[in-house]
From TrEMBL:
UniProt protein name: NADH dehydrogenase [ubiquinone] 1 alpha subcomplex subunit 8
Subcellular location field: Mitochondrion inner membrane
One cellular component term from this protein's GO annotations in UniProt: mitochondrion
Similarity section: Belongs to the complex I NDUFA8 subunit family.
The keyword Membrane is assigned to this record: yes
Keywords: Disulfide bond, Electron transport, Membrane, Mitochondrion, Mitochondrion inner membrane, Repeat, Respiratory chain, Transport
Annotated GO biological process: mitochondrial electron transport, NADH to ubiquinone
Region described as Disordered: spans on this chain: 136-162
InterPro entries xrefs: NDUFA8 (IPR016680)
Task of the protein: Accessory subunit of the mitochondrial membrane respiratory chain NADH dehydrogenase (Complex I), that is believed not to be involved in catalysis. Complex I functions in the transfer of electrons from NADH to the respiratory chain. The immediate electron acceptor for the enzyme is believed to be ubiquinone.
Length: 176
């Protein structure tokens, strides 16, 4: 995409949304449940980005993903705050790369709380790698017409004078 004077950029007010102000450990702690909870909004956003190939056309879908994320973490705060904080703290302190392998006990406590209070089961391993068909109400954008180019420049006639290359052949490995 080439930016010219014809490109209309969105106003800052259109782009301003409440941000998800959480640490990396907190986001990793809630990532699996968040992915399951906001799957519809996230798939809609990713479909829009893929089909439209222009991020300006997917601002509303992006806002929906952010709103869903905020809603999810507010629900976690109301119902499983202690378990969530314990799990996030374990992720933060147990390794330098926020690895989950050292925190399986606190993960189990958090998963149990999420299942009991929010009825949200942790998705199985590989869930987000499985192919799925996403049903959307948004119309498919029209296909971009195929570019039509004029015919190629005609070649030199066979009897045209062909001077030798000024600096030798391009195929130097064949002439040595």
């Amino acid at each position: 995409m080439v930016v010219t004077l014809d490109v209309v950029l969105p106003e800052e007010s259109e782009l301003t949304v409440e941000e998800v102000n959480l640490s990396t450990a907190s986001l990793r702690a809630g990532s699996f449940h968040l992915g399951k909870y906001c799957e519809q909004a996230n798939n809609e956003f990713m479909l829009c980005r893929f089909e439209e190939d222009d991020p300006r056309k997917c601002i509303n879908e992006g806002k929906a993903v952010t709103a869903c994320t905020l809603e999810f973490f507010r629900k976690v705060k109301k119902s499983c705050l202690a378990e969530f904080n314990q799990y996030a703290n374990c992720i933060d302190k147990s390794s330098g790369d926020f690895s989950l392998q050292h925190c399986r006990k606190t993960q189990g406590v958090f998963d149990k709380c999420m299942l009991e209070n929010l009825n949200l089961e942790r998705p199985p391993f590989g869930y987000f790698c499985e192919p799925r068909v996403h049903d959307t109400k948004r119309p498919k954008p029209p296909a971009e017409p195929k570019a039509v180019y004029p015919d190629a420049t005609p070649a030199l006639p066979d009897d045209a004078e062909r001077k030798p290359a000024r600096f030798g052949s391009r195929f130097y490995w064949m002439t040595e």
